[in-house]
Here is the input.
Amino acid sequence: MTITYIKHPAYLLISLAILLFSACNEDDNYTPGTEIPASCEQVYFSKENAASLMLPIEGSRSATLIVARTKTSSALSMPINILSKDDKLTIPSTIEFTAGSPTTNLEITLSADANAGTEYIFELELTGDNIDPYTKLDGSAKFFGSVMIEKWNTLQATFSFEELYSPWEGEIENLEGSNKYQIKDFLKSGKTVEFTIDKSTGAISFSGGYNDGTYWQFLENDNFIPCYPTGSDTYITSTYIYLGASYSYLNLNKKSGRIYHWNNYSDNSSNWNALNISWK
Here is the structure.
C-alpha cells in the first residue's frame, strides 16, 4: 500500500476547500422563505388583547378583539382562520378594515345558554398575503384565548360599628378564580366597593375613590357618599378609611376582619370607628 503525503500547506488548504464544497453541495437542502409581496398590509392581533375575556353576569354576551395593520390606505377584507373553538362561541370568518383605519374589531359572541364561571376556549390565525412573519410587530398572527361569564361567590356576612349601630346583615362577593372582592350596598349607601386582599397580611386594597397608600376615600365624582347603616335618615360619610394590615383587613381563615374609618355624622360630630365584619 502506498501512502501519499501532502507536503505543501497550500495543497492541504485547497484539498480541504474542495472537500467542504462537495459536502455543502450534497447536504444543503435550504429553501428560501416565501417572499412578502410589496402590497402586504402586515395584519396582526394587537398585544393589547387580553387572553381571558371576561363578560359580566348581566349584559352583552359579546367580547372584542383588536386586529391591527401597518398600512391603512385602502379598505381590506381579511379572512380569519378558526383553528379551534368551543361550540358555545360564534366567531366570524372575515373582518373588515375601512380605508384609513389602522384597527378593526373582531366580535366573539357567547351563546345565551353558556354557564357562568366556565372558560370557553378558542384559537385563531391570520393567513394570506397580508401577513408578514419576518417583521416584528406589536402583536401576532395567532391568538389563543378564552371567554368566560364572571361568576361571583357570595359570603353572608355580619357588619357592625363598635357601640354605634346595631349589627346588620350583608354580602361579600368574590369573583371566582380571582383575588377580586366586592361589597354591594356598602354601609347601605347603594354603592358597590371593590377591593383585593393581600394573601400574606390580609390587608385590603380598594379600587376607585381616592387612594394615597395611607388612606382611601369613598367618593363619587369627587364627593363623599352618604351612607345609612341604620336604614334611616341618620347618615355618615366615611371621610377616611385607613389602610394597612393593622387597620383594614380580612382574614379569610378566621372569617373576620374590619375596615377602620374616620366618620362624619349627620349631627356634625365625627370620630374614629371600626366596621367589624364576620361570617360563618
Remarks:
- The two ends are 97 Å apart (CA to CA).
- The first strand starts at residue 44 and ends at 46.
